[in-house]
Amino acid sequence: MFQQKRQREQTQNRTKGVRAMRFCVCSRPCFDSRRLFPPPAGYSPVLFREGAREMSVNVLLLTDQSDPDVVLPTLPLVAETVVHAPLGKPSPQQFDGPDVAVVDARTDLPAARQACRKITVAAPQLAVVAVVSPEDFVAVDLEWHVDDVVLPTACTAELQTRLRLAIARRHKAVEDTLQFGDLVLHPASYIASLADRELDLTLTEFKLLSFLVQHAGRAFTRTRLMHEVWGHECGRRTVDVHVQRLRAKLGAEHESIVDTVRGVGYMAPSPPRQVTPQIGLAHRPALR
């Protein structure tokens, strides 16, 4: 009698547990749970579910693979559209429509890394996700300038989440992006580009340039710059050396972005229009 009652309770608990589970958005068993909970009627795999809000996603897949579907098998189940492009030479026109660029980094890490960096400069509004093999997962660092990484074996639920978060991160980064004439600064990734050309700046040089651009029209003493950029006093000559190197990287045509104010220090001149963030635009006309 007691055993029969206990068996009934266990059966009821298991039934309640299954009913309480959220359905899996995969069309095949997840690699994590190894279980398949079929989605309810009317479910569309091309829609992200964010509470009551739904959104579609358009993907640009960069790969040299002859069969693009092997790069990320679950991608067609998530994306509304998938446009393929070669890893080394994507067309600039292909950056306008997609919400996210998925870069195949399974075989050629250097080429994939270079492609990710180029996308961030050419299309700052486009989220970047790298597909990396398990053994190369730790090779991806901040120098890649990607919003997320994913394994080729990612199930649909994981891929949906990673793409959604990558797009959200990119939108936040774009809101913080500054444009000063032909100069574009990305504080979130510490990338600076000038006339669609990436500048090879050190962290200190980027901080110095970013601080002056954010306060364009104001002159700052070397002592003030030490505290704002370096965080401590490091000698007046240190500021001058960094300014010289920064001007050399900007080039003769744009070195006036870091102007000298005699008897005071340095400043970025006031542009005709106020420095503004780039919001959702791949290319904004230069402020002249």
Automatic annotation (TrEMBL):
Domain of life: Bacteria
Gene3D superfamilies the record matches: 3.40.50.2300, Winged helix-like DNA-binding domain superfamily/Winged helix DNA-binding domain
Keyword Transcription regulation: yes
CDD domains tied to this protein: trans_reg_C
DNA-binding region: 175-270
Family annotation (Pfam families): GlnR_1st, Trans_reg_C
Keyword Electron transport: no
Residues spanning the membrane: none
GO MF annotation list: phosphorelay response regulator activity; transcription cis-regulatory region binding
Annotated keywords: Activator, DNA-binding, Phosphoprotein, Transcription, Transcription regulation, Two-component regulatory system
Gene Ontology BP term (one): regulation of DNA-templated transcription
GO terms for cellular component: cytosol; protein-DNA complex
Segments forming domain OmpR/PhoB-type: 175-270
PANTHER family: REGULATOR OF RPOS, TRANSCRIPTIONAL REGULATORY PROTEIN GLNR
Protein name: Transcriptional regulatory protein WalR
Organism: Mycobacterium talmoniae
Phylogenetic classification of the source organism: Bacteria, Bacillati, Actinomycetota, Actinomycetes, Mycobacteriales
UniProt gene name: walR
